[in-house]
Structures are given as structure tokens and as C-alpha cells.
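Report of the visiting student (M.T.), summer placement. My assignment was to run the structure pipeline on a short list of targets and document each run. The first record concerns Hydantoinase B/oxoprolinase family protein.
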Amino acid sequence: MTAKSKKKPVKSKKKVKVDPITLSVVRGVLETTQREMTLSLEKTARSSVFNLAHDYSTSLFNHTPEMILQGQDIPIHLGSLIPAMKATAAYFGDDVHEGDLILQNDPTYGGGHSIDTCMYKPVFWEGELVFWTVCKGHLTDIGGPVPAGYNPDAKEIYAEGLRIPPIKIWDKGVPRKDILNMLLTNMRARRDQEGDFNALIGACQVGERNLLALIEKYGLEQVQACIDELLDMAEKQMRSLIKSVPNGTYEGTAVLEDAGHGFGDMDINAKVTIKGDNCHIEINSPPQVPYFINSYEGNSYSGVYLGLMMFAQLPPPYNEGLYRCVTVDMGPHGTLCNAKEPAPHMNCTTTPMETLTDAVRLAFEQAVPSKVAASWGHANGLNIAGWDKRHDEEYVTMVLATIISGAGATPQQDGWHACGPECCFGALTSGDVELLEYSYPIIIHNYSLMTDSGGAGKYRGGSGTAWKVEPMNDDMTFIMFGEGRRIPAMGAAGAESTMIPPKVGSMDIYRDGEVKTLRDNVIDVIKPGEWVMNRNPGGGGYGNPMERAIDKVVWDVKNNLVSIKGAKEDYGVVFKDEETLEVDMKATEKLRKKSAA
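After the run finished, the C-alpha cells were exported:
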């Protein structure tokens, strides 16, 4: 091999025949490679955000670059990887060489939010660029005035942390120690950030190793032909689905609630036009605001694609072929979902992305009501930072456990508990309480499901979670971010909740002998002996709650998923005896008939 990059990578001179056995093997190697990359991140990373919560994603691209495999990781990462990879490759052009490693987090280069940092490794075979291995992970800090990056007081992007446009941190196999030192010097908890950087680098190298071994065994032309077949396979599946949708234009609108920014509730509208086997999605959102909920275009692709895939529910392969028949218009530059510099943006991967996802999903459900499903709980999270006297060093982390919400119900079943938020769609984990307490000087008093938090319906929404923390030996800064604190997750097919407060997010803070409930995004400090408790919303319900089987309501009450009061108000179920949970069938039938009227 040589280290020189040529402008036109190797392509097959003639169409190579692909047999199904080889195709299956190549596909399996690609999928295994991606999984091995994610396991490398989990097992070698330093921070709890990586090694416990798994807030990272991996993917493989060909030389074009076109995504040939996306990991079944964090959806809000995966869509933006496509424009970000293209922007990064275009920035360097021919100046890409064997042994290079590129870092990027800037949303103006197709990225998500700048706390999510991408590593790109070009893969060469006999001097030709043939693949890219890509890893994206949520660093616990990216510099700036506020620990962990989320700054609700930011009026522009420059107040949110380091912006890193595409930059080589390895040049022809030689680490750029000066660049790495400059970046890490500007980040809190340097040891964590450096460990996570090394994990990202290692995962990219694992991907490179496996891809080169694949070419060594089957030859470049055969591998490329198999990849082309997999891209075409995904395209055919999506085109077949789109073709089954009646031609026409369908709209969905979702409300983004005011989370203390003072601009009021905002509508995000998605208009989906189906014509044959092609789909065009047009997004309309309000003008950008001087608050950290603006989304740049690359990030918004993730929200749109997630809404599409929630509707599509297609089997693998998952690659860029899925989106060949889909075009997207994000609306005018300078709007909430197509922001322009210097709009602040750090909260964008949850707010407004989950609302954008809901709008797109609702539009598709107008087209095919039989595929309707309820919304998942939106993210309502907490970051913490302080000084760890045990090690005499600063600590900072995003507590991913604090955004674990409930999944939405479907036409077949109740929503899953503690599975959200919607932007992560089940790929995020909360980690062991004991490991979090070991890693940081905190006491976690409880981490539990919340009674009455699941949206009412014939099928109940999944329950949200409560997470309560106290600092051990010094002051602790906490930063609230997100929404879903006033408007519950949307139900579907007639689902409607009567009890609203338990189904939305909030945060309690205990100090000076009093508990105060917060519903705005704030930065504050608590001391040992004080605590904060974060509550996350549940998922939406499906169908008329008065049609929910009575025995299921009783089971929910027995298991503290629904209270006695919730059973009556949300489901019309009345108990004769609150100890034995004997149902008063006559009163229940009367109440349900009254509610139906």
C-alpha cells in the first residue's frame, strides 16, 4: 500500500456477479464490524456517558462517501452522520492519506450538536481510498462557560463550547499532539475526554482492520459489488413501502413547549408528498431564537429520518439506500430546524428534534392510519459537575439516566417502561447506580419508575423514571435541559389522559427544609444535605382508555404503575376495597358509559 490518495477511487470495470452466499457473508462481516466498533467504545472508554450509557454511534461509508451500514445505535446521531461525512470529505478533497484521522463536531459542517464529536478514518487498499470508518460520541464536556456544554443562558453558539471544524488529529499515521493538547486543554475533566478520544480512535482502527481483512479474502471488486447490492436492497424496500402509500400530500403538526425561554409554544409542521415510489418531506418551523434549541440542517435530518423510520418499520439492511427516494426541504435558512450562525444549539438533539420527529411521523400516519403509534416521552435531563475531593480533580457528566422516559404504545401492546427518550429510541442505557456513585462523589437516593406516568389508553404508554441525587462532600452544579414538562407525550387513536401532572417532566430541589418544583431550564448549585430529583415523562397511550381491559388496570395498580386515583380518572375503574383491589363492576360500568358519552 501507499499513503497517497487519488481523486477517483477504484471502481469495478465491469459488473461483478454477486451470489447470495457471498452477499450474506459480506453483509455479516459488515454488521459484525460495526458491532465490534461499538463494543470497543464500551470497553475502552473512560466516561460513564460512553461506558455505561452508550451514548455513541458507529457507521461505515464507502469511498463515495455513501453510508453502507449504520449501527443500530442512537437515531439522533445517525441521520446527521450522512451530511457530516460528505461535508468532511469535501473539505479535504484529495488531501486525504493513509494513516489520517479526522475530528469534527461543528454543526455548520453537517454535525449534530457540538458535544457530539465525530472521528473519521479513511481506509486505503493498494493506495486507493475505499472506505471510511466513523465513530460519533457524546463527550462529557466540550469547554465553554458551562460544564457539560448545555448552556440555557447562551444567546449565540460561541457561548456553548469549542467548535471543531474538520481537522486532522493524525497526519499520515503521526498523531498531532499539539492539536490534541490544545483541544483537551480547553475541556473539563481532561482525563475523561482523553480516554474517550482514545476509545473513538481505537474503534475506527478496529473497523479499518476488519474491512481490510474482508477485501483480502474476497477481493475489492467482489466486496464493492456486494455493498452495491445491499444499498440497492435497502432502496427497493423503501421504494416498495412508499409506493404502497396513496399519492397525495399529508401534514402533521407537533407543539414544542416553552421551557422557560419566554418565546411561547412553537409549532413544527411537516408536509409529506407521495408520488409513486418517491417521497418529499417539507419542514416548516418558526424563526430561530436566541436560546439553545435551534437545530442546524444536518441535525434536523436525524429527526426527519427517525420520524420516517418509526413509520416505515423496515427490516435491515440499514444504509443510505433507504433515503435515495426521499428528498427533504428543511425550510428557510434561519429557522428553528434550519438554523444559521450564530444560533445557539446545544439542546437540539432532543429539543426540537423529538418534536420534529413527531411532526413527520404524524404526517405519515395521516397517509396510513393503520400504522399509527403513540409518541415516546421527550427528554427532560440533568447534567452535574463539581470537584471530587477523593481524587482532587474536577468531574462533569451528562446523567443519561435522567432522560430515560417511557415508550409509546402501539396498536398491539403497551409501551415499554424506561426505554426512551424518543431521540434515542431504546439505544440508550442508564448504567448501574453503584458504578455512577463510584465514578462521581454523589449519592443516588432512588432511581425508579413513576406511578401514573404512562399515557392512558387501551394500551398504556410506558412509564417514565425518577432519579434523585445528592452531592457527597462539596457543592454540585446542576444544569436542567429539555422539555415535556407541561405537554405530555402524544397519544394515538383516541388515547387521552385525564391526569396530566404525573405524565410530564419536572424537577424537585430540596434546600433549606423546603422542596421546590422547577419546570424551566436553569443552572443552579446544591450542597451536601440538599438534593435534586428529576422526573421524566412517560410514553403516550394508544386507543380509548375506557376500553382497556379491567384486569390489566388492576394489574397496573398492583404493580404501582397506576394509582387508585389514576385507575378511576384515566380508566374509569372503581374499586370496592382499596386493600383487596376488588373492582366495583357496577360503578365502573356506569363511569365508563358516562365518559364515553
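DSSP finds twelve helices and 22 strands in the chain. Residues 190-218 form the longest helix (29 residues). I thank the supervising group for their guidance throughout the placement.
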